[in-house]
Specification:
By secondary structure, this protein is an alpha+beta fold. Helix content is 37%, strand content 32%. The strands form 3 sheets. A 5-stranded antiparallel β-sheet has the order 2-1-5-4-3, with helices on both faces. A 5-stranded antiparallel β-sheet has the order 7-6-10-9-8. Strand 6 (153-158) and strand 7 form a beta hairpin. The protein is elongated and about 120 Å long.
């Protein structure tokens, strides 16, 4: 019997040495009362010492949103005298701050009586990072959807001119599908039929970190000329580095044709008037002023 007691004592000493140095928070509780906490648990709950936790109910350290789930898990471990896999819960520090944890529980014998061994790791930061990533992905999906539905031809390219994205309107306007355009140089798409020297001037603007807007001439895949209004702006990564540009092009070919036709009609009328004896006059009915163009 004496040997058995010595062996038990040595076993418990090894257990304490192991869990005391564990980087994960470890709590042993019986009937919800904490009877052992390791230094990592003291830090996780932001206690000044183990004495602030021992003798208190672990249930007080469980966030209201997780109390029902934790109750069920503790009941299962108690009844089955087994173990449960990791699950995510919300705990509370002593000051009431909420933390996200991943916890595992198993039944053990501690000081000669049944108890529950619970190990938890603080995953608050990783949870926040996951949530931030989900928000970014949702925002990107929303933006991608908006760009895809836009009536303007919109695409992005990196600072060397390699196309990164290409919306449906760009495909409709220029004749290249997204599969054909993405990964290719805008130079090879031949949207601007210019010389190498002229293209180098265009390419110099790729690294510009200011928005630009201008009218330009472009061509479709089959060589059809287009007049477009171009809006372009820099794109920055999360570190503020300029990594790409977004380009939006509106087809103004028909508008430019109408403007040209109007200019020609105006010029023809002016020539006709100058060669005739017709006088043109304008009157302001409010002021009774009259202007005569002889």
């Amino acid at each position: 019997r004496k040997k058995g007691e010595i062996a038990l004592g040595e076993s418990e000493a090894r257990f304490r040495a192991l869990v005391d140095w564990s980087p994960e928070s470890i709590v042993v509780h019986r009937d919800w009362i904490m009877i052992y906490v390791n230094p990592a648990a003291v830090r996780m709950f932001d206690a000044s010492s183990a004495q602030e936790l021992l003798g208190k109910t672990i249930f007080d350290r469980v966030h209201p949103d997780s109390k029902e789930a934790v109750k069920k898990r503790v009941a299962m471990v108690t009844e089955q005298r087994g173990s449960l896999p990791f699950a995510r819960h919300k705990y509370l520090k002593l000051d009431g701050t909420t933390i996200d944890v991943e916890a595992i529980a198993t039944s053990i014998d501690y000081d000669g009586a049944p108890a529950i061994y619970a190990s938890a790791r603080d995953i608050t930061e990783s949870t926040r990072a996951e949530e931030a990533l989900r928000k970014i992905e949702a925002r990107n999906r929303l933006l991608a959807g908006a760009l895809e539905q836009s009536g303007d031809a919109i695409w992005t390219h990196d600072l060397t001119g390699i196309v990164l994205t290409w919306n449906a309107a760009a495909s409709a306007l220029f004749g290249f599908s997204a599969e054909e355009a993405v990964g290719r140089s805008v130079r090879k798409l031949q949207l601007a039929r210019v010389s190498e020297a002229e293209y180098e001037t265009i390419r110099a603007h790729f690294s510009s970190n200011v928005p630009e807007a201008y009218e330009a001439s472009r061509h479709t895949r089959d060589g059809k000329p287009l007049e477009v209004f171009v809006s372009t702006a820099p794109l920055f990564d999360e570190h503020g580095r300029h990594v790409a540009r977004i380009i939006s092009m509106t087809d103004i070919t028909e508008r430019k044709k109408r403007e040209a036709a109007l200019r020609q009609a105006t010029q023809r009328l002016q020539i006709a008037l100058e060669g005739s004896n017709i006088w043109i006059w304008e009157a302001d009915l409010c002021t009774n002023e009259i202007w005569l163009d002889a």
